[in-house]
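Fig. S4 source data, part A: sequence.
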Amino acid sequence: MNKKLTFLALSFIVALNLNAKDADLMMATTTSTDNTGLLDALAPVYKAKTGVELKWVAVGTGQALEMGKNCDADVLFVHSPAVEKKFVQEGNGIDRTAVMYNDYILVGDKGLASKFKNKNLGEVFKTIKDEKIKFFSRGDKSGTHNKEVTVWKKVTGQAPEKESWYNQTGQGMISTINIAAEQKGVTLTDRGTFIKYEDTKKGKSPLAIISQGDENLKNFYSVIAVNPKKCQNADYENTKEFISWITSDEGQKFIADFKLMGKPLFTPDAKERMSK
């Protein structure tokens, strides 16, 4: 092969490599999508469909957004609308898209359940405060922690911080639920993670739901592409494909069909909800 042909062949190979689709997609996500097992179930289905391996780090939403800012992820899958909007407005992310929702619930030791019977959300929080019932907060700037603080402020006027009965674990949701159970206290959790917790207890959970159904407890999830104009190594092409799939009829049906103990953990809503 002469030098000209050799050069053309090498150029062609380099061009193929430059244009080749990456074999994986790096996601920063919240602990609930991981703890519930949703991503473990979804990843092999997505790989079979696209050939792309989904990899993820599960942290609080605040940490996930920091990973996006630091260009350590391609796509974010998170659930704290106010801070997500700020992330996008500051130019760190694009294509914020609704995916699904579940709701938050308050769970507490079964021995405490009678204290909260027939009380609305505000009355429940007031009872916790007035009776100094042990409350366990994640305290980690996650989506769940942000929601908890918002609800405290809305229903009681201010969020507790240094009160003796208010405990910040600095840990993920499953760990915080376990601590609340061990300490016979109360915590706020997303429903999906609590169902996962119940599943591990095989019907012997020491915790019961003490408040649910209030409109203030809706829990909306979105996906966000890390802005490739800010992070040049961000895999925007694969991210666009993932967003397209998870919001498609196929992806939304997968979410709807994902259950534990016969209970759905999330409700798909890409078709019904604009990103809030």
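Fig. S4 source data, part B ends here. Residues 3-20 have pLDDT under 50 and may be disordered.
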